[in-house]
Amino acid sequence: ILLLIRNPKDVATSFYHFSNDMSPLPSYETWDDFFIAFMTKKMPWGCYFEYLSKWNKYADNENIMTITYEELKENAVLGVKNIAAFFGIPLTEKELQSVVEKSSFQSMKKNSHKTHGAFGNVLFRKGAVSDWKNLFNEGQNEKMDKAFEEHMGGTKLGTKLKYEVYCKA
């Protein structure tokens, strides 16, 4: 199992835009309204911190590889190599480069109409790391950091996310 996790602040930011662009989901008049719903576990798919906590129980399982979105954005070649090795898939250099190119956010966004139809515009917005800085105010940032520490502090997945997000930023 490949477990891809992402900075909770960017998850919230992405889900805010996704919710407002996806009519079956609740939409929010303001970012502040969304943030309150996100932090009080009123999301259609539940609480992201609880999701991470549940997966944390399996973090040491040899059949599970955890990688962060941030890792893949920072070094896609290394990420793809590690994923291929985990699944026992040998790749030539040409195949590796092809996978990296075709799985880049830019490439997937460009081809999203072919692969996902009209839904592609909803799924592929920016793909950026740290886009949360465009929405979060200082108080929201502090609340999210506190919630992260309460739910994920000292856990294997929490440590991995914290390193990728805070130590490499």
From TrEMBL:
For this protein, the record's Pfam families field holds: Sulfotransfer_1 (PF00685)
- What Gene Ontology molecular function terms does this protein carry? sulfotransferase activity
Which InterPro entries does the record match to this protein?
P-loop_NTPase, Sulfotransferase_dom
Indicate the family of this protein.
Answer: Belongs to the sulfotransferase 1 family.
Q: What class of enzyme is it?
A: transferase
Q: Where is the Sulfotransferase domain?
A: 1-155
Superkingdom is Eukaryota
Listed name of the protein: Sulfotransferase
Give the EC number(s) under which this enzyme is classified: 2.8.2.-
Q: What are the record keywords, sorted? A: Transferase
Q: Which gene encodes it?
A: Sult6b1_0
